[in-house]
């Protein structure tokens, strides 16, 4: 049994996941303005736009003096341009509505076991916090999904100035909490950004696995560090 003083969490696809594919949300937002684009086409163009934006302007372009909102507005606009929609004024309106829409609870659902696992960790007296590659909307999203009260603090990559797997975002969380690395653990769904990155700063970590075949990195993770579901965590930790 692992004795812990601090448990940090990734959010997207660990505690919360999108209720619908991105393309469905984008297509619905466009239909309000009588623009009809298939969700599948928008899904494809979104992934292209997001990948390019992340490459050229990592961590919301903070080092290039972009705001996270402008970063996302540009992603939305490019998504629609790649799908054949080019009217700038219309794209600006759609981008603004989508930026606000993704703050609401209606676009998010809890990963199975999330609420119960957080509640029981809280009852055990384990301090909890968030370390997430996300923008400043995350506080509001967690509040709207009735999860914020579980966490002492929420550290986003936008606030920290560093994105996982950069060790400095984990070190900042440890500094805020005043907890030594060996007394802390991190839970996430990414081998590189969560499991390996946390261990590189001396923390314990657990990898939440998805359905389907494991990738070659995950195959090397000890079984006791793998969570087939969030509720499995409760059998391997206790308050330190």
From TrEMBL:
Query: What do the Gene Ontology cellular component annotations say?
Result: nucleus
Q: Which InterPro entries does the record match to this protein?
A: HAD-like_hydrolase_domain, HAD-like_sf, HAD-SF_hydro_IA, HAD-SF_hydro_IA_REG-2-like, HAD-SF_hydro_IA_REG-2-like_cap, HAD_sf
UniProt-listed SUPFAM superfamilies: HAD-like
Q: Which family does it belong to?
A: Belongs to the HAD-like hydrolase superfamily.
Q: What is this protein called?
A: Haloacid dehalogenase-like hydrolase domain-containing protein 3
